[in-house]
Amino acid sequence: MRITVISGGVGGARFTRGLLALLADRLPDGHGGTTAQVTVVANTGDDMWLHGVRVCPDLDTLMYTLGGAVHEGQGWGRREESTTVSTDLAAYGLGWDWFTLGDLDLATHLARTELLRRGLPLHRVVEHLAARWRPGVRLLPMSDQEVETHVVTDDGTLHFEEWWVRHRAAVPARGFVQVGVEDARPAPGVLEALADADVVVVPPSNPVVSVGTVLGVPGVRDALRATAAPVVGVSPVIGGAPVRGMADACLTAIGVATDAAAVARHHGLRATGGVLDAWLVDDADADTVGPLRAEGWRVQAAPTLMTDVPATAALAARTLALVDRMP
Amino acid sequence: MRITVISGGVGGARFTRGLLALLADRLPDGHGGTTAQVTVVANTGDDMWLHGVRVCPDLDTLMYTLGGAVHEGQGWGRREESTTVSTDLAAYGLGWDWFTLGDLDLATHLARTELLRRGLPLHRVVEHLAARWRPGVRLLPMSDQEVETHVVTDDGTLHFEEWWVRHRAAVPARGFVQVGVEDARPAPGVLEALADADVVVVPPSNPVVSVGTVLGVPGVRDALRATAAPVVGVSPVIGGAPVRGMADACLTAIGVATDAAAVARHHGLRATGGVLDAWLVDDADADTVGPLRAEGWRVQAAPTLMTDVPATAALAARTLALVDRMP
Q: What is the DSSP string of B8-26?
C-alpha cells in the first residue's frame, strides 16, 4: 500500500507518526514497521538562510518526530537540547534573538549546509540526514529549488518565519508571496508519489502556508487533481480555531474564515476544480457535515485532536476509512 | 610607548601576555592595564573555510589568551569547552574528524562568518570580536585578503592546518605556498604599526609558517626593514628543538637547521638585508652568542621558557632590554 502525505511541520509530523503506528499494526513488516510505503512531501517554504546556515523547519520537525528525537513538549526541535552556541553568539552581540537555535539543531543545519555546499540537491541532502533518524517514511522536500514564503504586511514584506516566530503572527498579514516559486520544480519523486499513491492525505497542517505552499509548486496541484488515488484531508480547524499555531491569521490574510467548512471549500472538491475528495472534521464541527455533503463532499466528523499516538492512529484510521482505504 | 608584535598563535600569544604583564607593572594606567600601546599583527595563513565557517586559529588563540578565555592546558581554544555540535555532526557522518571544534569556538566562527558575510573586512570583524574579550592590545590580521598557507608534499599540496593537525606534520614537507598572497595587502594599520613603533618584537612563534607568512604579505618586509624602531626576535628553538609544535618540520622543509643561530640567520640582520637587529636565545644556546655577535648581531642568552606569566614577563623584559627599550 502506498500512501502519500502532503505535510507542514508539527501537525503533519504528528499525524504521520499516528499513521505509521496504525500501519505497523495493520500491515506489519515483522520488524516493528510496516510493509506500507509512506511518502511525505514536505513544505520547504519556511526554509531560510540564517547566519549562513540553511534551516528547514518542517523537514526537521518531520525527521525528528518520526525518528523519535523530537522535543515532545514543544513539538519541534531536539529533545535534551542545549543552547551553548547561541548563548555564546549572543555574547558577541550576534545570533538569533528571536529564533531559538539549539546546539543539536545547529548540527543538523551545519550538516545540511555542508551537503548543499558540496552540490547535493536538497532531496539528496534530506535522504542523507534522514538516514540517521530512520523516520520510516520516504521524506521528500516539495522542491529542490529555494522557495521562501514571504508575508505581505502594511509595513512591507518579511520572511514567514520572522512574521511567525518573531512577531507571533500579530502583524496583520495582507497576503503571502512564494518567492522563487516560478522557477521551482517538484523534487524528484514528488509527482510520482502523487500519481502512484493508493491514497493521498492532507493532514491537519496549516492550509495556507504549509499545504498551500506545496500546492503552489508548479505541477503539484495538477498531479493532485490527476491522480487516480482518493485525496482526503483532515481539518486543522476545530470549533472555529486552529488547534495549534496561528493558522487563523493566515486564513484571514487570504480571506478565508477560520472554519472547518471554509477551509474545505478553500481547498475545493476535485470534482469542481479543487484538490480534495473527502474531508474529516472534528466532532465539534459536526454541523458542517450536512452542508458539505450537500455540496458533494465525502465528509465525516471524528475526534481529531492528536493527543497521543494511539489517538492519532485512530484518527489516521478514520481518515483512510473515509475514502475506503483502511488497510 | 608603542610596541608592535608579529605573532603566530600560542607562542606569540603567551609572549604578548607576559609583555602586557610587564607593561602593566612598569607603565601602569591605574586600571590594571598599561599606558603602552601594543599592536599585534597576527598570521592569518592558517585560516580556512571549514563547513562554510571561517576559522582563524592564530587570531582566536591571541584573542582568547589575552582575553583570559583560553584553555590553558592546550594553549588554544576556549576553557570549559564542550563538543555537542561536533559530536552530533559526526552522527551524520559529517564534521571534522581531524579538527577539534568546540561549541564555544564554533560560536566565534559563526559570529565571524556572519560579519564577513555582512561585508565587513577581516580587520573590522576582529575588532568586533575582540571588543568582547578586551585583549588589551590592538589586534590586527596581517591582511584582510584571504591568504592560505599550503604545504607542498610528494603527494601534492594540502592546507597547512590539514598537514599540521591531521598529519601532525609527519608527511615530509617540500615547501610552503602562500595561496593568494600576491593579491594580499597589509590590513589597515599594519604598516603604520611597524613604522610608528618604538620597538618591534618577533616573539617565539613559528619562524616559517607564522612569522614568515606575515613577512610574505607584500609591503610588510619592506616596512620592517624601513622602520626606525629596533626589531628584536626571540628564538623559538631551544637546544636544537622547537619548544612547542613542529617548527622543525617547517624549518627542514625550507632547508634551515633547527638551531637558534640558523633561525636568526634565516631572518637575517637588517644591516645586511634581513629583518632583525637583535636576537634573544635560550641559555641552553649560549654557545651561539659568540658566533652571532661576530656576525654583527645584538644577541644575549636568557631563560626563554614561558612557563608562567611572571617568567614570560621577565622574558619580555630581557627582550626589550636587549634593544634598550625596557620601560
A: -SHHHHHHHHHHHHHHHHH
Q: How many domains does chain A have?
A: 1
- Does A76 reside within a domain? yes
Residue B85: what pLDDT?
95
Confidence band of B52 (pLDDT split at 50, 70, 90): confident
Contact A76, A70 (CB under 8 A): yes
| Distances, alpha carbon B228 to alpha carbons A241, B120, B200, in Å | 78, 32, 10
Q: How confident is the model at residue A98 (pLDDT cuts 50, 70, 90)?
A: confident
- Of residues A18, A96, A24, A4, the one with CA closest to residue A57: A96
Contact B282, B300 (CB under 8 A): no
Of B84, B106, B114, the CB nearest to A94: B114
Q: What is the Cα–Cα distance from B179 to A260, expressed in whole angstroms?
A: 63
Strands B48-50 and B53-55, sheet pairing = antiparallel
C-alpha cell at B68: 583570559
CATH code (residue B201): 3.40.50
* Cα separation, A274 vs A258, whole angstroms: 19
Instruction: Compute CA A76 distance to the chain's CA centroid, rounded to the nearest angstrom.
Output: 12
Whether B136 contacts B28, CB under 8 Å: no
pLDDT at A245 over 90: no
Residue B210 placed within a domain: yes
For residue A192, is pLDDT > 90?
A: yes
Distance CA A118, CA A111 (A): 11
For the segment B214-233, the average pLDDT, to the nearest whole number, is 98
Cross-chain Cβ contact B106/A85 below 8 Å:
yes
Cell match 640558523: residue? Answer: B262
Domain presence at residue B98: yes
Subunit contact A92:B129, Cβ cutoff 8 A: yes
Query: A102: closest CA among B60, B88, B97?
Result: B88
Q: A-chain residues within 8 Å CB-CB of B53?
A: 52, 110
In angstroms, the first-to-last Cα distance of chain A is 8
Element counts in chain B: helices (H) and strands (E): 13, 14
Helix axes A103-117, B84-91, angle to 10 degrees: 50
DSSP bridge partners of A173? A153
Whether A89 sits inside 8 A of B82 (CB atoms) is: no
Residue A40 has pLDDT above 80, yes or no: yes
What pLDDT was estimated at residue B97? 76
Q: Write out pLDDT tens, residues B317-327.
A: 999 999 999 99
Instruction: Tell me which residue range forms the domain holding A58.
Output: 2-146+184-242+257-322
- Residue B173 included in any domain: no
Residues 6+ apart with CB under 8 A from A222: none
Rg of chain B over CA atoms, in angstroms?
A: 19
